[in-house]
Specification:
CATH architecture of the largest domain: 2-Layer Sandwich
Number of helices: 4
Oligomer: single chain
Largest sheet: 4 strands, mixed
Helix content: 25-40%
Radius of gyration: 29 Å
Distance between the termini: 58 Å
Order of helices and strands: EEHEEHEHEHEE
CATH class of the largest domain: Alpha Beta
């Protein structure tokens, strides 16, 4: 036996309010007693679906419930697809990164920012190199300054364990 799935909307006899505001096609929008509203839906071979239970009186729509659920699912999917997904690209430095490597990584970071991705730059301190924390911080601040025209610093450099992180977000579209 399958477990009963809780429906997100109350339908027909599951609606508990004594009076409801009825909306739908070919219907006079008004407040009706629940039995009258259910009868109106049954006369059209449709369902009475409670779409706004919080309002007073609750709003119900006369519609085909399976079609209604399908449209709601479709709307949710559309909203989800339009939501912007943030991509975070990581760029790793060592505390003794040379100028050429720095420029190479900066070029990559500027491309990432122009694409709309966030950049998480970090300096990894291996072994005893943790004594050069200031070098790492200076390197990250120099990196942020070099990328000033493409992005803005979202989080200043901070140390977590053996890594010093900094987040840079892309600047808004002009």
């Amino acid at each position: 036996m399958r477990p009963r799935v809780e429906e997100p909307y109350r339908v027909n006899e599951l609606i508990t309010a004594p009076r409801v505001r009825v909306v739908g096609e070919n219907i006079k929008v008004d407040v009706y007693p629940i039995q009258t509203a259910i009868r109106m839906a049954q006369e059209q071979n449709l369902d009475l679906v409670e779409i706004s239970p919080a309002s007073d009186p609750p709003v119900c729509k006369i519609t085909d419930y399976s079609k209604f659920k399908y449209e709601q699912k479709k709307k949710q999917k559309e909203i989800k697809s339009k939501a912007q997904k943030t991509v975070v690209k990581e760029i790793r430095f060592g505390p003794n990164t040379e100028e050429h490597d720095f420029n190479f990584k900066m070029k990559h970071a500027s491309n990432f920012l122009q694409e709309g991705s966030k950049v998480k730059a970090y300096v990894h301190f291996a072994g005893r190199s943790i004594v050069y924390k200031e070098r790492g911080e200076i390197l990250l601040l120099k990196f942020a300054q070099a990328l000033e025209e493409f992005g803005k610093v979202e989080q200043l450099p901070h140390l977590e364990g053996k890594r010093m992180f900094m987040m840079i977000a892309p600047k808004g579209k002009k």
